[in-house]
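Quick note —
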Amino acid sequence: MMPRPRHAEIAGAGFAGLTSAIALSQRGWTVRVHEKSNELREFGAGLVLWENGLSALRAIGAYDDVMEGSMTPPYYQTIVDNHTVSKEAFGFPWRVMTRPHLYRSLLAAAKRSGVEFAVGSEVIGASPAGVLRLASGTVLQADLVVGADGVRSRVRDSLDFEQRRQSSHDGIVRLLIPRLKDKLGDGEWDNVVDFWNFHPRFLRILYVPCNERELYIAFTAPRDDAEGSRVPIDLDVWSESFPRLRPLIEVAATLPGRYDVYETTVVKSWTDGKVALVGDAAHAMTPSLAQGANSAMFNALALAEDVDTASSVEDALPQWEKRVRPATDRYQAHSAHLTEKRALSHGDYATLLQKAKL
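Predicted structure written out below.
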């Protein structure tokens, strides 16, 4: 008699949940992913992928889809108070894209791999014995439970994982808008451009072209700046500091959005029995190193690799955490430091990345 395949129940259909689901399914596991929303979709704006994220995509067969419809800008340019302080061509792989594009690519790979989805399925908790509990009252047993349910993880909090949460003095509004290159005048508008203004007030705009049509634009302001943190964004306030970008700001000011304070969440342990935390549930971090999604996908892939080759899930999970956690902790701590000091305004982003040992 053939042994039954091992089974995983995954809370959360974000980047971490989908990556772990694909990687486990490709290794012969049966996998069910629970999503509280009634549809599978990504609501975010844009992101940068580095080598660890790109390697995870290669491993699960989503790389080619992601490359089509994304781009690698020629330079990363930093401008402070209207003066360019650095313009860098990175000597290592990187890619920018919209979050919906990455999500669609992962979702297609998950469906090809035979992953089962349960939408409108709200997870309220788990147990170390491999039990997942739903708001409907359903109790599900698994060989592995993955908590990929975000920074407010119900899986994590139901098991009382010890955690420390820290908020920054700044926050961000992230939007997707049309490129509008023809309205911006002279400039290298295929670059990522990081605009910082410190006078007369601190405001920052991150300009990230994701493809020929779409632009990821992020507005950073202190949380105690009522005008700078207002949503929809204040056209006059932002245009006064960044007049070159007024055509973009005019579009952004018409859109709804959300102001998010930068947060870091350090969880003492990511595992308990047959339960593992991945992504923001385990290591939410500020975006200064753009490592949130990258670390989430890389660690989710490593989780599947480690549990699949082990005879005991309970024994494999601590070893998985021991393997991937040092790099993740380093990214998280360094990113928080850069955010708190607003150090990206100094330029030379490649050196900052190297210091974090990306």
